[in-house]
Design goal:
single chain; alpha+beta; 5-stranded antiparallel beta sheet; 4-stranded antiparallel beta sheet; 4 helices; 27% helix
Amino acid sequence: MKKSLFAIFLTSTLLLTACSTSNAKKESEATTTASETTTEVTTTTESETTTTEPAEDVIKPSFKSSLTLDDIKKVAPEDLSNYDKFCNEYFSVTKTSGKYCQIEGLETVTLSSSTDKNRKTDAQLFFFKAGADVANTGKFSGTDGTLHSQIPFIPLFYNETKGCLVGYRDAMINAHKFTFVEKYTDMMVEVSPSEYGL
């Protein structure tokens, strides 16, 4: 009987030990599984900023192609406006009938209004000698197409994008008072020469 009791006791103890080990193993597995499946998800969103560079203006120089911007920088506006130097040193000109000449490549331009870039006018540019200086006129294609007098103006560039001529305006012919301007159909807007590399 003692042997039977001892056998039952031993069996119970072994059974309890096995159950306890099994439960511990299951708890351990459950903990491991839980820790393995619990992952921290961090989402980072980067915002991309797309900047569009403004398109550069299409600017055409009107002075001789053998000259550079540095060459033009060194020339005083008074020299540019001297008719003989204008025709021989700084611009390639073609003579037309009578007293007028034109700058090669700048015979006809499309000019815009300063306030409405969609309002455009085609103009033929003519230059003539006024004393020792250069004056210019423009023949506009439009209502009457007649030759209109303009104040003395030396165009160094044609800004095709803006629809304007760019250069020196001489407010007092033969006395000289120069300003650097963009010339539209309706007005002249003073600008810094540095905007055009001068």
